[in-house]
Automatic annotation (TrEMBL):
Subcellular location: Membrane
Pfam family of the protein (one): Na_H_Exchanger
Biased composition (Basic and acidic residues): 469-480
Family that this chain belongs to: Belongs to the fungal Na(+)/H(+) exchanger family.
Name the record gives this protein: Cation/H+ exchanger transmembrane domain-containing protein
A GO cellular component annotation in the UniProt record: plasma membrane
Keywords for the protein's UniProt record, in alphabetical order: Antiport, Ion transport, Membrane, Sodium, Sodium transport, Transmembrane, Transmembrane helix, Transport
Sequence segments annotated as region (Disordered): 459-480, 514-636, 675-723
Biased composition (Low complexity): 594-619, 690-707
InterPro entries referenced in this protein's UniProt entry, alphabetically: Cation/H_exchanger_TM, Na+/H+_antiporter_fungi, Na+/solute_symporter_sf
Record-annotated Cation/H+ exchanger transmembrane domain positions: 30-439
């Protein structure tokens, strides 16, 4: 039958739609979620995966896409890719030579703390995980052996770098988490994802003695473990990763110094290095996760690439995309039907296990070892680093690694059936607890304190809004005293009303965002201070001419307004007066950029001479203002400085001469010139000629007499005395 429209309602199409929906919708409120509510992306993504998964809406069920083997292979490769990229980026983000400087701290955490956490987690699993009697063949409840519990515990022992980013990045981390704590959490989470293999394979090798390796002694299995895991996988991957990172660093610097590489490829180099390391290490069967971390740290050992990569957001963007995809997937594959009496593990047992693993797996042992961990200086830092050791994508990766190696001959069916549900619930517990710890610790006290303040006059309600405590606070927006507390309930209520009442002017759909943009930077602006400064500097250089003229004009106005001389009508702005025409230098117009002031000075001979002190102050302020303007080039800048210095020296000399008084010959010359000008004007009109000649004769005969208080042609406020 012919169908004019062919629908593609496939699982892949639905998965793409859900992932795109999360990125688009969550992205529009991501600032509120991360910087105001302090919620992590993994928590939101896992919640969405659970909602659209097979146990709620049933829109997404990855385990039904194919048979069990293909699903396991997909999960293995997907989580391997995510963890490999994340640990390499973690290695890049560490400071210069960090592994060498913190070798003692990392040794204690990666060997002492990890080993203790492995045994403690195995004890908890061994004591709590027990299948009900209804599922047992003999009608008696049965549980795992301690060796099988060690095998499961190996998957949840390493900390996860993906979840660690939620506590080591962002506004909360920058304000409240010291840099040394952030760095040690990142370094440990990046390294121990690969160092979990020795714990896992040791348990698996000992388990195989009862099935595929029956008849081999414990010593033989331990020898195989030392050769096959410790040497071939761990040590070889460390050497290979270090060599690969060193070669990548040298070749990239060589290409960059010769301008062979463009900007996009430069910032994408880390991603390419991660993929190359994963692929080549996997070809010879070594530990590709550990090799990625070592390669990333070796690649930026001298901080050269790390400092330059801070100008790019490619790592943060990849983190967001990978986190969204993998945690939605994890939320959709959690087997919720297994956590009840009829299906498998009793609910209270798995809940108690999730809580006790988070409380007893790491925090007590990190706090107890604080004295021998140099990176942690206080008990509070030790408690924080111990608690924030999350379980995440790496644990899901270890599930698939373990199921590949556990015997499938029927002797370990209980272990194979319990491995995935136990580990996935521990992952969910970690995502939930570590995702809400910061919001509770940050917003909880604020809400309680806000409730106490509001209940002094009225009870708090859903729509309670902060009211200023005084007129001072009301006038300044609460900025004078304590910072205004943010009520998330009130904000949520106002947001819902704004969306529902869409016809109002102040609704969500019609509200003008101008008021918010005045106090917040545009999100499209660079977030890095170095990048913002470089862009602003580039803008100033492009508009240098106009900005320089504007700055000069402003500087001249400021210098004119800085004086304290008394003003009168017609004298212009109050303050120091411009330099008179007698003291003007030929280069003044070129430097002051204010021809109007100089013109008025030339036309007004009765303007007072600027006092030396005021003139010097104005000139200094003017020069300081000019220094703030960006010069066109370094050569022009040097030329300007030289001319300013020369002009300042000449003006100073002229002021000294003016302050000492005009020389006698200069005064006589000025008076003679004035009389000659008046004589010419009188001859032109035919009036007063005899009077002018009489004045000239009197002036020529006045030798050695004292100079008058005020002479024509000189400023009226300057009094000269004979020498």
């Amino acid at each position: 039958m012919y169908q004019p429209v062919e629908l593609d309602v496939s699982d892949v199409s639905k998965a793409f739609a859900i992932l795109g929906f999360f990125i688009v919708v969550y992205g529009q409120i991501s600032y509120i979620v991360k910087e105001r509510l302090y919620l992590s992306e993994p928590l939101i993504a896992v919640t969405l995966g659970i909602i659209v998964g097979p146990y709620v809406l049933g829109w997404l069920d990855p385990l039904s896409w194919s048979d069990q083997e293909i699903n396991r292979e997909t999960t293995y490769q997907f989580t391997r890719l995510v963890v490999g990229i994340q640990v390499l980026f973690t290695g890049i983000s560490l400071p210069k030579a960090y592994l060498r400087r913190e070798i003692i701290s990392l040794t204690v955490l990666l060997f002492g703390i990890m080993t203790t956490a492995w045994f403690v987690t195995a004890l908890l699993i061994w004591g709590l995980i027990r299948l009900p009697a209804s599922l047992a063949p003999d009608g008696i409840g049965y549980s795992l052996t301690f060796l099988e519990a060690l095998c499961i515990a190996a998957a949840v022992t390493p900390t996860d770098p993906v979840l660690a980013n939620s506590i080591t990045k962002g506004r909360y981390a920058e304000k409240h988490v010291p840099a040394n704590v952030r760095n040690i959490i990142l370094a440990e989470s990046g390294a121990n994802d690969g160092l979990g293999f020795p714990f896992l394979y040791l348990a698996i090798y000992l388990i195989n003695r009862s099935s595929v390796d029956a008849g081999l002694s414990v010593g033989s299995e331990v020898g195989r473990w030392v050769y096959g895991v410790v040497i071939y996988q761990i040590l070889l991957s460390v050497v290979y990763g270090a060599l690969l990172g060193y070669i990548a660093r040298k070749t990239l610097r060589w290409a960059e110094s010769r301008k062979y590489i463009d900007k996009d490829s430069f910032f994408a180099f880390g991603l390419g290095l991660a993929l190359f390391t994963l692929g080549t290490t996997g070809l010879f069967g070594s530990d590709d996760i550990l090799a990625c971390f070592v390669a990333g740290n070796s690649f930026t050992w001298d901080d050269w690439f790390r400092i330059r990569s801070e100008e790019s957001d490619i790592q943060d963007i990849l983190d967001m995309l990978l986190n969204a995809a993998v945690f939605i997937y994890i939320g959709a594959i959690i087997p919720w039907g297994f956590y009840h009496t009829d299906g498998g593990i009793e609910a209270w047992r798995i809940v108690v296990l999730g809580i006790t693993v988070l409380l007893l797996r790491r925090p007590p042992w990190v706090i107890a070892s604080m004295k021998i961990i140099p990176a942690l200086s206080t008990w509070g830092e030790a408690a924080f680093a111990g608690f924030f050791g999350p379980i995440g994508v790496g644990a899901v990766f270890y599930i698939e690694v373990a199921l590949r190696k556990i015997p499938d001959d029927g002797s370990r069916d209980l272990l194979r059936n319990l491995y995935t549900p136990v580990v996935l619930f521990c992952v969910f517990s970690s995502v939930l607890v570590h995702g809400v710890t910061v919001p509770i610790s940050k917003l909880g006290p604020n809400i309680v304190r806000k409730s106490a303040t509001l209940t002094k006059t009225r009870s708090i309600t859903l729509t309670s809004k902060h009211t200023p405590r005084s007129s001072d606070e009301a006038g300044r927006g609460g900025g004078s005293g304590e910072k205004e507390l943010w009520n998330p309930l009130y904000s949520l209520w106002q947001g819902l009303l704004s969306v529902a009442l869409f016809w109002r002017r102040d609704s969500f759909w019609r509200r003008d965002a101008e008021s918010r943009s005045k106090t917040h930077a545009h999100i499209s602006e660079p977030s890095n201070a170095v990048r913002r400064a470089s862009i602003e500097e580039e803008g100033r250089s492009e508009g240098g001419g106009a900005e320089l003229n504007q700055s000069d004009s402003v500087g001249t106005e400021q210098s004119n307004a800085s004086g304290s001389g008394s003003g009168s009508s017609g004298e212009g702005p109050r303050g120091a007066r411009p330099v008179p025409s007698a003291l003007e230098l030929p280069t003044s117009h070129a430097h002051t950029g204010n021809a109007n002031v100089n013109t008025s000075a030339n036309n007004n001979h009765s303007s007072p001479i600027q006092p030396p002190a005021q003139a010097s102050s104005a000139s200094t302020e003017h020069q300081q203002t000019r220094k703030q303007a960006k010069p066109y080039s370094s050569l022009l800048h040097d030329l300007q400085m030289m001319l300013d210095k020369e002009m300042s020296a000449e003006r100073s000399e002229a002021r000294e001469e003016a302050g000492a008084g005009w020389p006698e010959e200069v005064r006589r010359a000025l008076e003679k010139a004035k009389l000659e000008q008046e004589a010419r004007e009188a001859e032109g009109t035919g009036v007063g000629g005899s009077a002018v000649k009489q004045q000239q004769q009197q002036h020529q005969g006045a030798q050695g007499m004292a100079a008058p208080d005020s002479m024509p042609g000189t400023p009226s406020r300057v009094r000269f005395h004979g020498r």
